[in-house]
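## Example pair
The file below holds two records. Each record gives the amino-acid sequence first, followed by its structure token line.
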Amino acid sequence: MALDKIEKLLEKYFEAETSIAEEKELKDYFASSDVTQHLEQYKPIFGYATQAKQEQFTATIPLKTNKRSSVVWLSVAASVAVFLSVGLFTFNHYNHPVSEDLGTYDDPEVAFRETQKALALISRSVNKGIESMEYLNEYEQSKNKIFK
């Protein structure tokens, strides 16, 4: 009779319909030494939990304690880089002579022509930007036609 009950519990277990108490009953049965021959194949399934409880992690984990020294070296390297940057900037900035040519013109007509050239250059750049904005305008109109 007990064997029939165990077989029914096994069927329920494989159909995922057992309760926790029924699973405990199956584990207890398969942990015992009087498991019938044709159910011997299921013993590893239910014996795994007891075997897993007995396992322990025995490997040692090395702890790295030299993190502080790497942080110190990193901060020293960063400080040296900052000092070199400031030094090179200062050296280059103060050792170059300041040019006296500030783009000024003595002749008003030459100044007027140069100003016109500069404004024409700016005008071309602005017009290019406006042309590319027309594509966006066309896209917006198409989008409004489609999604209305």
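Second record, same layout:
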Amino acid sequence: MVDDIDQEILRLLTADGRRTFSEMAGAVGLSVAAVKRRVDRMREIGVITGFTVQVDHAKLGWGIEAFTELRYSGATPVSAIIGTASAVPEVQAIYTIAGDPDALIHLRVRDIGHLQQVIDRFRRTGTVVGTKTLMVMGSWERGPASP
């Protein structure tokens, strides 16, 4: 379904989503039209799900990043966990987990006071029975990799 040339195109797009078909064609040794067809096909079959921009959140006033473990009461369904967390605008991602805790949420907030308000909001839901928050001091992400 995806050959070595497709994987190279994916690597190029992952490194720079604004890369032109012409640039990719030169890198993989195909015509511009052939590269466009391959990208279109990978979008159609769901290998490429979208294109994004990387944002420096600190420059927008959202300089604190944290991960919070959430423990829910009883047999709270996963859909309720996702519903509770996705309604909070500071939540960047939700990971439901097997075991303890029930979920891990990725947060971005303005400052420590704002982080406290967000955590308190979860605690007031009536279904969250415990939290543990880890503040990010620094981060590293794996660069563009071949699929």
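Notes on the second record: Helices lie at 4-15, 21-28, 32-44, 78-86, 112-123. The mean pLDDT is 92.
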